DNA sequence: CTCCTTGTACGAATTTTTTCGAACTTAACA
DNA sequence: TGTTAAGTTCGAAAAAATTCGTACAAGGAG
C-alpha cells in the first residue's frame, strides 16, 4: 500500500486548486477569512503542527459536517491564506506562508500566537 | 470662539466612550472589524494623517449617511481598534496604537501599509 | 429662545455569511 | 465488482452584518 506521505512536494505533487496570485491578495479579504474562530484555528494548527506533509480536512478532528468544513477551507483558499492539493481522495492543505509574509509581514506570526477563546 | 484643538489631551479630556480593556481584545474580533474596506480606510487615515488632535466622524468626508458611519465607528470602538471621546457635539476618534501593538504587534503597521482597492 | 450642527437610536429592508442535510463523485482496495 | 472513505455540490434555512431613513438629543452661536 502506498503511503501518501512518500510523495515528494513539490516534485510530482498535484497542481494546487485554483487560488489567487500573490499579487492579488487583498488585506481586507485575508482579514475577513481569518476573522472566524474555526478558520483561525485551522490556520494556527497548520502553522504550529506543520509536519512533513500537509494535513487533510479530517486531520483536525472538527465535530462539524463535512459540507461545513468544505465551506471554511474554501474560504481560506479563495482568500489566498492556504493552498490545497488533491491527492487521490484526500485534499491536503498548508498555509501560504511565503506569500503571506511577502504581502502582509507579521500577520502569520499573529495567527500563530493567537489564544483561542476559553469558554 | 473656542478652538476644540486647544483642549489638551489627556488633561481635561472627556472620558473615552465604553471600550474593551486591552486584555480583552480578541484577534478574531479585531480582524473582523478591519475586514471592511470602509473601516480599514478609517483606521488607515487615522494612522497616517494623525494630527495634533483626533478626528471627527465628518473629517473623513465619506459620502454615506450619518447613521451608517455611526455603525462603522462603533464597530471599530467595540472591537477595541479605536478610542472615541465626546467633545461637545463632536465625537473624536483615534487608533489605540499602544494597545494594538501590545497585543497584536505589527497589525497596525499592516493597516498603515494597506493599498485600497482601485476599482 | 431659536436655529444649526454633530451625531445617536431605532427599526426595517437588504445583503452576506454560516450551517448543514442530502445526493453525488471519485479513488482505493479487498 | 462492489464497498468504503474523503470530500464536493446544491439548495435552503437560519443567523449575522450592512445600509439607511426617520426621529431624536444636545451643544454652540446668534
The pLDDT mean of chain A sits at 91
Question: Can you give the helix content of chain A as a percent range?
Answer: 25-40%
First-residue to last-residue Cα separation of chain A: 43 Å
Along the chain, the helix and strand elements of chain A come as HHEHEEHH
| Biggest interface between chains | A-B, 20 and 21 residues
**Total of DSSP H or I helical runs spanning 4+ residues of chain A:** 5
Shape of chain A: globular
Approximately what portion of the residues of chain A adopt beta-strand conformation? 5-15%
Radius of gyration of chain A: 14 Å
Widest sheet: strand ordering of chain A: 1-3-2
Specify the biggest β-sheet of chain A: 3 strands, antiparallel
Number of strands of chain A: 3
- What is the oligomer described by this structure? homodimer
- Secondary-structure class of chain A: alpha+beta
* Unreliable runs of chain A: 1-9
Topology summary:
Two copies of one chain form a homodimer.
Chain A (H helix, E strand, L loop, with lengths): L26 H8 L2 H12 L6 E2 L9 H14 L2 E6 L2 E6 L1 H7 L3 H6 L7
Antiparallel strand pairs in A: 1-3, 2-3
Chain A binds a DNA duplex (30 and 30 nucleotides) through helix 3.
Amino acid at each position: 500500500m502506498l503511503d501518501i506521505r512518500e510523495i515528494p512536494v513539490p516534485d510530482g505533487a498535484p497542481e494546487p486548486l485554483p487560488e489567487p496570485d500573490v499579487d492579488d491578495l487583498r488585506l481586507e479579504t485575508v482579514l475577513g477569512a481569518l476573522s472566524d474562530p474555526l478558520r483561525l484555528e485551522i490556520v494556527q494548527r497548520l502553522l504550529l503542527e506543520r509536519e512533513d506533509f500537509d494535513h487533510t480536512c479530517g486531520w483536525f478532528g472538527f465535530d462539524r459536517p463535512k459540507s461545513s468544513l468544505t465551506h471554511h477551507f474554501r474560504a481560506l483558499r479563495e482568500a489566498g491564506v492556504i493552498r490545497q492539493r488533491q491527492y487521490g481522495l484526500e485534499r491536503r492543505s498548508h498555509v501560504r506562508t511565503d506569500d503571506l509574509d511577502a504581502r502582509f509581514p507579521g500577520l502569520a506570526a499573529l495567527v500563530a500566537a493567537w489564544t483561542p477563546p476559553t469558554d
